[in-house]
Structure formats: structure tokens, C-alpha cells
Amino acid sequence: MRVWTHSVLLLLAACNPFAPSLGEGDPYAHLLGDPTTIDGYFTAFRSAYELRDISLYEPLIDSAFVFLYTDFDAGIDREWGFIQELESTRRLFQNAVGVQLQWNQVITQQSLEPHVRTRVVRSFNLSISLEGGEVFRGDGNVNFLLVRSDSADAWRLMHWRDESEL
Hints:
By secondary structure, this protein is of the alpha+beta class. The chain has helices at residues 2-14, 29-32, 38-51, 54-57, 82-95, and strands at 61-71, 76-81, 96-113, 117-130, 135-147, 156-164.
């Protein structure tokens, strides 16, 4: 009886019912998104924007990243790279008091190299609130080229063509 009681106490001492075991994975993955899947990547992207958290956003962007958009005033396409993307997004997150991003239907999803390169064109609605009550709204399509080293890695955004008229 004494050995049994000691064993039960030892077992209970090693168990913390308030902390998930290591084998259970990230308990917040469903909220923040699992970027090893395409759907999870878009959830993670939305979470980074809505939480305005550059530390969640940066791992979603590939170091060879290129952002391409149309400058309608000048009538030309313009682009910037990884550093400019992080800096402009950091400024957006710092100056916004609220961001809402809604992903809508996937227009096209094409696997260019199975499991390592995928192009996704998807529609969105975006609302950015600034202090003072000013709100910017936009919608359109993003044209993303997502890449990764192998099928177990997280997707990263290498090329973003903005197909909206914000």
C-alpha cells in the first residue's frame, strides 16, 4: 500500500493539468495559423495583420521577396524588396489602431513545383483604422507566389503582385 501511494504521488507531481504536453503541438495554431499549409499560411498572414505584429509577419516573407504594384498616377508598375516590405509593414502596424483583413475566395491555386512552389490568386477586403477616426478600405486580389524548401517547411511569400485599386 505504501509503495502504491508513493507511486501515485510521484505520478501526480510530474503531471501538470494546466500545461499541454510537448507532444500536443502549438495550442494556438488554429488561431494564428499553421504556415506549413496553404490555408494556414493565409490564416497566419491575417493574424499578423490584425494583431499588427511584425514578429508574426516577418517569418511569412522570403528573403528574396518582391512586392509589385501599379502606380496608377504614373501609369507604371513599381516594386520593392524584403527590407522595404518589412519597413513599410512595420510603419503600417505602428500607425494603425485597427486592421481587419478578410480573405475571400481563391480564384486560382496552381502548384508550379509540387509541394515547394505554389501560385495563389485570392480576393480580399481590407480596412485600416487610424487615430482620429480615419479609415481606409480596399479590396481586390493578391497574386502570391509561395515557396518553401521542402514539403515539411512553412510557406513563405516570395512574390506579391497587388491586383487591387486601393
